[in-house]
Design a protein that fits this description.
The protein has helices at residues 54-61, 64-67, 83-88, 99-107, 154-162, 167-170, 181-184, 198-203, 224-227, 246-268, 270-279, 286-300, 312-324, 346-356; strands at residues 15-17, 32-33, 39-44, 70-75, 94-97, 112-116, 124-129, 144-147, 172-175, 191-194, 219-223, 235-239. With 379 residues, it is α/β, with parallel strands linked by helices. The protein folds into 2 domains: 15-121 and 231-378, D-Maltodextrin-Binding Protein, domain 2; 124-227, Periplasmic binding protein-like II (D-Maltodextrin-Binding Protein, domain 2).
Length: 379
């Protein structure tokens, strides 16, 4: 699950390293020489090990980072880890974080820059059963609607506002746990879900009326990309200050080159990447992880300008939603337009040039999703 996290940092983190899961020492804001002359790099993930991060796991497993002279360790995330804060404190060299929350951290003093916009579209849905007839935000009126909170609610609130609803008056908003139990039990009419995780959890559950698993035909899903209130999600962030150092700039290009190569591999090898994620220690089932790999691929590919490029229109929409939309407490994510170098395409453009020299498909023009059969409970 990819979500905007609580503002608390855990004391420790699980490390998936390119050297047999070995933990590495803190870089202290500098790149360190590792074994065999490799430069040690730490990437803070946004959540627990799962296929949301398959490209980075593949880059470790396939040796793409080593090919670039890097010894990369993946720091596992969790509900009490805020990636951009870990990054801002110098405890990681790069971090995966949703754009609006990272921009909020920038407003609060975090000196960070988006150097690679991996997800090109939002993976957030509002899911309901067909019997509720909820196909647009307008249809949420007088319904009991779940959301996770913690900054995840703004696409939903923006969508309702755009359709003329007052979220605090026209809809009953309730705190949703990070699962789909409330929807399955009928306690809420519509639930927040990621395409690659919670949506699949419903399809892995048994329909008591048929004795078989639920099917997509049993559900409606509001997609915020279609509504026009989607915000950019998984991006690669790093320290703005460190980018002033030529050596770290070079490391960043290498890191992006290998990371994108991992995602390119996963675009055509979903099952293999699923297996790598499972081997890396995912707690989720095999069919669930294959679904997740496939759905995450859909959020990345196609990337018409090239994987990792920040699309200005999508960025501007994200900033507009984050700065103008109020949640039930009347708060917005951002106070205004980000100042300084909030994002740059400079290093991604160099990484894409490296990958094109190898005749790799950096735009995903040939990407075709696979068909995934989910098993009960995602096993």
């Amino acid at each position: 699950m990819n979500r905007l996290n609580r503002l608390v940092i855990a004391a420790g983190a699980v490390v998936i390293g390119s050297s047999a899961l070995a933990a590495c020492s803190s870089s202290g804001g500098k790149t360190n020489a590792g074994s065999g002359g490799l430069t040690k790099v730490k990437l803070q993930l946004q959540w627990f090990t799962q296929a949301q991060f398959a490209g980075y796991i593949a880059a470790v497993d396939k040796g793409y980072y080593k090919d670039q002279g890097l010894d990369v360790s993946l720091l596992q995330g969790g509900s009490d880890i805020v990636p951009q804060t870990v990054l801002a404190k110098g405890q990681a060299d790069y971090a995966i974080a949703w754009v609006p929350k990272a921009l909020q951290s920038r407003e609060q003093g975090a000196d960070i820059t988006d150097v690679g916009q991996v997800f090109q579209r939002s993976g957030t849905l509002q899911v309901s059963f067909k019997s509720k007839n909820i196909t647009t935000p307008t249809a949420l009126k007088n319904k009991t609607v779940g959301d996770w909170g913690f900054g995840n609610e703004y696409e939903l609130f923006a969508g309702m506002t755009k359709d003329g609803l007052s979220p605090g008056k026209d809809v009953k908003i309730v705190q949703q746990q990070f699962d789909m139990n409330a929807l399955l039990s009928g306690d809420i009419d519509a639930a927040q879900a990621m395409t690659y995780n919670e949506y699949a959890q419903v399809l892995e559950a048994k329909n008591p009326k048929t004795g078989k698993l639920y099917q997509p035909s049993d559900l409606n899903a509001i997609n915020w990309n279609n509504v026009g209130t989607a915000m950019l999600q998984d991006a690669i962030w790093t320290s703005t200050k460190k980018l002033a150092d030529a050596k770290f700039e070079a490391t960043t290009v290498k890191f992006l080159t290998a990371s994108y190569q991992g995602w390119i591999y996963c675009s055509t090898h979903a099952q293999d990447c699923r297996d790598m994620v499972v081997k890396a220690g995912s707690k989720l089932g095999s069919s669930h992880q294959l679904w997740q790999t496939n759905e995450v691929n859909k959020l990345i590919w196609p990337s018409p300008q090239g994987i990792g490029i920040v699309d200005k229109a999508a960025w501007d929409q994200t900033v507009a939603v984050a700065s103008k939309t109020k949640n039930v407490d009347g708060a917005t994510v951002l106070k205004g337009t980000p100042k300084g170098e909030a994002y740059t395409n400079k290093y991604t453009q160099q990484a894409l040039a490296n990958l094109k020299q190898r005749n790799l498909d950096t735009t995903g023009t040939g990407f075709k999703p696979i068909t995934v059969t989910l098993n009960p409970g995602g096993s």
